[in-house]
## 1
Amino acid sequence: MNSESELPKQTVVSLAARKGTARVPALTAYDYPMARLLDEAGVPMLLVGDSLGMVVLGHPDTTLVTMEDMIHHTRAVANARPRALIGADLPYRTYDTPEQAVANARRLLDAGAEYVKAEGGVEILPQIEAILAAGIPFCGHLGMLPQHVVEEGGKYRIKGRDEEGRSRLVRDALKLEAAGVFACVLELVTPPVAQEITTQCRRMLTIGIGSGEGCDGQILVTPDLVGSFPWFTPRFVTPRARTGDAMRQAVTEWMGAVNAA
Ligand code: KIV
């Protein structure tokens, strides 16, 4: 059943060792069955993303997600005891100061996360440094930052299009790497800039989403990949299954059988 049946328990070190040698496929997970199915498929890196605000809780964006939401879903994912490395997002406004960032990162670790992720570059460097100094592995998130989409007028815009944007992204990525960040999501970054960051960062893994093929790994919101949130699919995703349609069909057939009995 497993595509990578020999996959041992994944660690920050084992994932980092893939840099330049093997790609890192990563997917979001929000509950026990999802984490267990992804683990059985051999996915090495999971993220309890705050995208759960939209694809699980039905919010319009990620800004309404709370620490309690993240803890609840991280516990469910951790209950699957996946071999994949489990990460969890620090939600919006839960890492405004280094002290708050460390306290909330510890709560996610207590719930079962093995790394935490937060959005931003040099503007959150003190928080990132404090998290790392507390011994907590950290994954960055640069490019389009969903937690700031409301402030940016509600549009999910591609980043790195002009020279100023390019140099800011490269500078931020190098600062994160120098701080000791093991991986960084690059969301909606132009493919040449994502490629440049991947090459310039010698140790930090780049995990792309809508940022071209040049990254060390790729991450997707799992419902986008398997068609279980069929009402919206980002332009850069080709669903590989239509589980929403399969569910509607199964339910319709079952209701037909109930009504016919
Ligand atoms: O919240 C999330 O699911 C994410 C991924 C899109 C990287 O941040």
Note: The longest strand covers residues 138-143.
## 2
Amino acid sequence: MKQLTDLTFDNRFARLGDGFSTAVMPKPIAEPRLVIASPAAMALLDLDPAQAQSPVFAELFAGHKLWSTAQSRAMVYSGHQFGQYNPQLGDGRGLLLGEVVNDAGEYWDLHLKGAGQTPYSRSADGRAVLRSSIREFLASEYLHALGIPTSRALCVTASSTPVWREKQEKAAMLLRLAPSHVRFGHFEYFYYTRQHDQLKILLEHVLSCHFPETLQQPEPYAAFFRTVVERNAGMIARWQAYGFCHGVMNTDNMSILGITFDFGPYAFLDDFDEKHICNHSDDSGRYSFSNQVPIAHWNLAALAQALTPFVAAEQLRESLDLFLPLYQAHYLDLMRRRLGLDSAADNDQQLIERLLQLMQGSAVDYSLFFRRLGELPAEQAVARLRDEFIDLAGFDRWAHDYCSRSAMDKRSQAERQQHMHAVNPLYLLRNYLAQQAIEAAEAGDYTAVRKLHAVLSQPFVEQPGQQRYAERPPQWGKHLEISCSS
Ligand code: AMP
Ligand code: MG
């Protein structure tokens, strides 16, 4: 276990030079107070969890201090936002403090979000508010606990520094961890500014640091793109299987690593609704729940365009064509497991689609449905869940087919339950739970945030006395409008 002062830095991205990022020091926020730290994320840096209590922890992650071996940089990138190319993006409020190498030799970017203005801030203040910092913290650590690839969050620090959004709020900082902060938009930036030499340097950097296996391939750049497609197919399948709605799938928010990145007005589905739009400024529903699949494909095509100087169009096309079948195979596999089906049968896809159609418009709690389906033998479970559906005749037909299908897998109920509970969370990060914790935190009480994070860090394991976190949301809780400002 290490002390904070013992971290080892090796700043590979910073060494790419000023064409890729600009040196900027964090601008501290006043009277820093630690809101929450993630012991699991601290472990990634070999940090003793007790270090979070030291005053220097809050100071470091509120921009008051910096390791002498860190090199704080704002990265330049561009990207497609809601389908339109925006040539001027970049780290407007976050800084890459440096790359920490842990004892296992793994690299972790330390990225401080809300660290003040940079050359890429445009007219904005470079800050992040407490509510959005807490939301990103909770989501990153929860998605990880669910087994969904994601950036991580080390901690959130609150302050007395005022910031203006719809009203006056307080600035906070979030320390994000990821093996890389390179986005699709980084490649687009060099492509659209016709800096093909820099584009090649970026490619070489990303391949050697993050995709070393592709260097063994006859055509490493083509292999790299294929890997990005594969990883995205796996990530999106998990989002869809678990009802995660990202909300702002702009190409500047898409990680090159295929991890969930840049959390805004995200939401997990309460009632199943394939048309759900969690981003209230998304008028056309471009980033609605079911659109996440075609949009991921669209985003990959935008990345492919930026790689055309170095990879033949036919190869890019071939890899793009892999996305949908790969996505479908992952999704089918996950959903089978969520339904407790141990083997594969021909009509499984149909069985899943029929279930979702019945859920649509029936106000069935998407997450709890699967958990409850595993609690009892199939016949008893469907009988208990029947009342939740509006189309009872349709549900009875589905339940009949599901029970016969389920009986094909010869397993005891104990075994079936064990397998199902291992993939079906009892505790879901619901908007209203996050909102209650945020309101307490805004009033200076961090116990609710910490409690919520602790329960959600083991979402599959029933925790005595925590029933409140496993309940269906109240009506008001289902229709919260989460502010898109952050
Ligand atoms: P986002 O919507 O958070 O993904 O951000 C889109 C772009 O706006 C990125 O280039 C951000 O760095 C920038 N940005 C967002 N909020 C701020 C802010 N408060 N100050 C400066 N730049 C910001
Ligand atoms: Mg962003």
Note: The chain has three domains: 4-181, 193-332, 339-421.
